[in-house]
């Protein structure tokens, strides 16, 4: 159980300490959750994602893998993009695919391209855990939704950490 008073206190302490010792970047606030009475060997491991009311990482890098229409839309809102031709140039080169996966936090893909990605790139993006999110409705809203999404996954360790905000946000926003 998580007590809201303890959480509020922790948030205000974090914000106060970050103001004392200024850094040259916006610090991200992460929530660490430890599970008790849970055996990852016997019990099922799980993963999922939660949409937060505010964007915890505003500088999150997203790349659009799309057809001509989506590429044009991505260009308008200043989003990085790659079309099918650019993906073909990677030619399943593992090093280049890995480099691409490291460069971005998430990928959006148009319906027509999403089926071709495994053929064009191989398993690289899946292994990195950054496989594509379908971009069907307006691209800008999808980008903001992706930025507000937080993924969590329970592996062998009984501790999960997720980014919930940054020190530039108000305490109330972080608490939500």
Automatic annotation (TrEMBL):
<comment type="similarity">
    <text>Belongs to the universal ribosomal protein uL1 family.</text>
</comment>
<protein>
    <recommendedName>
        <fullName>Ribosomal protein</fullName>
    </recommendedName>
</protein>
<dbReference type="InterPro" id="IPR028364">
    <property type="entry name" value="Ribosomal_uL1/biogenesis"/>
</dbReference>
<dbReference type="InterPro" id="IPR002143">
    <property type="entry name" value="Ribosomal_uL1"/>
</dbReference>
<keyword id="KW-0689">Ribosomal protein</keyword>
<dbReference type="Pfam" id="PF00687">
    <property type="entry name" value="Ribosomal_L1"/>
</dbReference>
<dbReference type="GO" id="GO:0003735">
    <property type="term" value="F:structural constituent of ribosome"/>
</dbReference>
<dbReference type="GO" id="GO:0015934">
    <property type="term" value="C:large ribosomal subunit"/>
</dbReference>
<dbReference type="InterPro" id="IPR050257">
    <property type="entry name" value="eL8/uL1-like"/>
</dbReference>
<dbReference type="GO" id="GO:0006412">
    <property type="term" value="P:translation"/>
</dbReference>
<dbReference type="InterPro" id="IPR023674">
    <property type="entry name" value="Ribosomal_uL1-like"/>
</dbReference>
<dbReference type="InterPro" id="IPR016095">
    <property type="entry name" value="Ribosomal_uL1_3-a/b-sand"/>
</dbReference>
<keyword id="KW-0687">Ribonucleoprotein</keyword>
<dbReference type="GO" id="GO:0003723">
    <property type="term" value="F:RNA binding"/>
</dbReference>
